[in-house]
Amino acid sequence: MFSSALLNVSCSFAFQLSDIGKAAKANISVGDLVLSIDGIATEGMNHLEAQNKIKACPGDLSLTLQK
User: Fold this and answer.
1) Which residues have C-beta within 8 Å of that of residue 46, sequence separation ≥ 6?
2) Distance of alpha carbon 54 from alpha carbon 63, whole angstroms
3) Cβ(17)–Cβ(1) under 8 Å?
4) Does pLDDT of 61 surpass 80?
5) Residues 6 or more apart in contact with residue 2 via CB below 8 angstroms
6) Structural domain of residue 30, as residue ranges?
7) How many domains are contained in the chain?
């Protein structure tokens, strides 16, 4: 699971990650911008909305990232 927080960065989000979590295993790095979560743009989303969308995913999660 993704650890602690999502940080608002110019209408997108950057992860704070655990070194052993799913995001790290998927090669997602701190500083990557999340442009969409399961096809839904993150622009205009606040921290809680993005976090809830990620946590609500019952299976595979699709993220569009800008490295």
Assistant:
1) 8
2) 9
3) no
4) yes
5) 15, 17, 18, 21, 22, 23, 54
6) 6-66
7) 1
**The model scores a pTM over 0.70:** no
Could you tell me if residue 14 is inside a domain?
A: yes
Condensed to tens digits (0 to 9), the pLDDT of residues 8-39 reads: 333 445 556 777 777 777 888 878 888 899 89
Q: How far apart are CA 47 and CA 55, in angstroms?
A: 12
More confident call, 43 vs 22? 43
Determine the 3-state secondary structure of 24 from DSSP. helix
* Assigned token pair, 18: 């655990």
| 58 part of a folded domain | yes
